[in-house]
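User: My collaborator sent over this chain with a note saying "see what the structure looks like." That's all I know about it. Can you take a look?
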Amino acid sequence: MELSGVEAIQARISEIQRRFGIEGSVPGMASNFQRTLTAELKKKEEAVPAQKTAAGTAAKTEAGAAQATSHVGASAELSGASNETAHFIREAAAKYGLDSRLVAAVAEAESNGNQNEVSDAGAVGVMQLMPDTAAALGVNPYDEKQNIEGGAHYLKQMLDAFGGDMKKAIAAYNAGPQAVKDYDGVPPYAETQNYVNKVLDLYQ
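Assistant: Without extra context I'll predict from the sequence alone. Here is the result:
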């Protein structure tokens, strides 16, 4: 096993002491080695904090990266949703080229991410799809994965229909595209206006 600098110096001191019988038999020998030993110890002590600092910096960097990754991963998390629901949201967003945070925000505003949610008007599931809309999109609204895919697809259609205008697309998701066209913007319905504001707040 290779000796450290300090251990090597100590071994050398012992060897010299054995060779010369008692410490100091060689004038200046002990003091020279003592100075060398002290210098080596000082260098060792200075190196340890430096290593700790480097390790600490690396740990902080890794922690920061983990936190950033965690934040990205949490973008599709919902208050009432399972991890599986969040996974479906990320998949559907990727499939239609959408920001998962936007799909998640719509899901949160619609149902709190609850697939069992059914509105008085008959809208079903996480994305609150009306049966007719779901049929037109070719999905089964009672299947969670399909429900989320259908909602993401419809949201993508609304974004395309309104040139990427997010406010109009979100309003159209709630009130229908014709109402947005009729008013050339968010319709003056309290429900729709509150809905748009809620989605945008969640998205931010």
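A starting point for your reply to your collaborator: Residues 22-31, 50-76 have pLDDT under 50 and may be disordered.
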